[in-house]
TrEMBL record:
InterPro entries: Methyltransf_25, SAM-dependent_MTases_sf. Residues 55-140 form the Methyltransferase domain. GO terms for biological process: methylation. This is Class I SAM-dependent methyltransferase. The keyword Nucleus does not apply. Keywords: Methyltransferase, Transferase. It comes from Brevundimonas goettingensis. GO terms for molecular function: methyltransferase activity.
Length: 209
């Protein structure tokens, strides 16, 4: 049975949008206790994109620091975020981006396709069952040549953390199931190198074309 905190995720970030903006901060994380830093992962992602390419950021939050870093490098970002407060902050502070109301479990942008897809620190807030719905929806918006980056747990299951006095849900599929879903959409992911991962989970950079 899925932990009840899974159904609270959108409400949690909606109710505490200002707290998340303050806690997340405006910059990518430069260092990790072990493994590659957030900056390192995003450098890999951005290097794989064509100059001025399009990026779909699913679970884009406030736009900071992820979309802001992409926009600064000249990429065209479309963010999808269900929290009104976070989405409004992105629209106000990053007018160069496109900010859409939406949930990755029901994502449908028609025939729009993107050079890059992101579900960074967002997909892992869904239950395993919901990830099986959301991940194919995200990958269906890939251009013929595309790079996808996401963060996941290391094995199938749930981990319940705590943030600002409330339970914070995290879910994951097994690594092999992620690989299977990637392959079904023509993506080849990076191998999982323990030396590159942090203590919280796996980082994937999957490429197509």
């Amino acid at each position: 049975m899925t932990h009840p905190s899974a159904s609270r995720i959108v409400g949690l970030y909606s109710d505490k949008a200002e707290g998340w903006i303050a806690d997340r901060g405006p910059r990518l994380v430069a260092g990790e206790p072990r493994g590659l830093s957030e900056i390192d992962w995003f450098e890999r992602f951005m290097t794989a994109l064509p100059p001025g390419g399009t990026v779909l950021d699913v679970g884009s939050g406030s736009g900071w620091p992820v979309a802001a870093a992409l926009i600064e490098r000249g990429f065209r970002v479309t963010g999808v975020e269900p929290s009104p407060g976070l989405r409004a902050h992105a629209a106000e502070t990053l007018p160069a981006g496109e900010w859409l109301d939406g949930d990755m479990r029901t994502l449908d942008l028609g025939d729009r396709r993107f050079d890059g897809l992101l579900a960074w620190h967002s997909l892992f807030h869904l239950s395993p069952a919901d990830q099986r719905i959301a991940l194919p929806r995200i990958l269906s918006h890939a251009a013929d040549a595309c790079v996808f980056m996401t963060s996941t747990g290391q094995k199938e299951g749930e981990v319940i953390g705590e943030w600002r006095g409330e339970p914070l849900y995290h879910g994951s599929l097994a690594a092999e199931e992620y690989r299977t879903i990637f392959a079904a959409h023509g993506f080849t992911p990076n191998p999982i190198d323990p030396a590159e991962q942090d203590e919280y989970g796996n980082r994937w950079v999957a490429r197509r074309g």
